[in-house]
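Notes to self, Sugar ABC transporter substrate-binding protein:
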Amino acid sequence: MSTSSQPLSRRSFGRLAAGAAGAIGMGASGACAPQGTRPSARSPLRIMAINHVWSQAIKRRTKEFEERIGRRVSMTLLTSDQLSSSYNVKLNASGTDVDVMMVRALQEQLVFAHNDWLTDLTDLVEGDKEFAWADFQKAPRDASLAAGKILSVPVVTERPTLYYRKDLVEGLGGPPRTLDALMSAALELTEKKKGFYGYVGRGQRSGAVSQWSSFLYSHGGDFLVDGKSAIGSRQALAAYDYYGKLLGTAGPPGATNMSLEQAMPIFAQGKAAFYIDADAIYSNFLDPKIATPAVRESVGFAPFPAGPAGAKPHNIPSWSLGINKFSLLRDDAWEFIRWAAGPKMSAALQSDGIPGARRSVWSDRRTLAAFPPDLAEAMRLNAERGLGYDRPRVLQVGRARDIVGRPLVAAILGESVRPVVRDADAEFAEFLVRDNRHKES
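result:
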């Protein structure tokens, strides 16, 4: 969206003194704001965001938005833990001192929706032709919904990419296109006595679930079917067995303690042939401070390999923008989202190497030029094939991931997986009943 030629669309929330926007809450100074309090023209639009390349890029551009709306913008960048803690404190107190919220649609949005902390954006998003909601990829768009309402707008997307060493797969006919081929190549290239591994990936109980999800879908499984646990299905069992064998046999020791922070350096330091993880981290393998010369010169990028059910990676909105239900500046907050997630800004940021959520930017050669060509193609294909979630869509996401991840640990350790899956399936089924009761309470 042009910040100079495009007129403002003042689709107002009504700025009612009554209701949530005028409820007693925390004012800009932190004191309680009495019902009906109106923000002055000097009150800043307050944005809370994760400290991420996307938010850093937006923060550098806020001057032009300030000139557009005639109001100062205050943008606070925090770690994910700090952000979650701040939201809990402010929103539980019906705080008015945050307007635009950067949220994880798949991690906390359902809880925020259940607590009625997010503004319903449905009419605004769908009624704004210039904003072009249909231009957003279907998978991230679907993840923005809760109970049929659009509660957030995706701004950063993420898919799993197969990172591989080109110099090691020349004799194997190139990167694996199927999971069977990946398994075969990883086992063939493993030389544990020399400290070299065919595959590295996340194996930590909860943290591995999001990456395992693509293996699950590609085996024809899912976390839930018709609202009930599906992790005990034969497809899920096959996915557990596969991932456990891949990482347990071809992977490094201590894999069950590895999250992104532990797995990524192993590939970057040239100690593994294959690695599947988020495409957003690709620059680490081109960075002289992180990757060895051999990795920088030979790293390749490929789409997620096909399993028995085809190639079904996730394509998720890792971060989205929502509006605090208690904000007194919801009109300006919506204008910020229109600007920051609009077609023009999305194209500009993707041209800088920040993967967005709009279909138009993924079909524009100019916006893809910032990525290595094989990575751009892998991202494009994964986006087309992808599902919009990488974890169970429940209120208590952390607990769900912990349950689902238990058989993963057993599989990686080489234990008998079937009884662990059976127990986890029963536990997950019981959890879903409690989770739904909590949702309805």
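- Confidence is low (pLDDT under 50) at residues 1-11, 14-36.
- Residues 160-313+394-440 form a domain with the D-Maltodextrin-Binding Protein; domain 2 fold (CATH 3.40.190.10).
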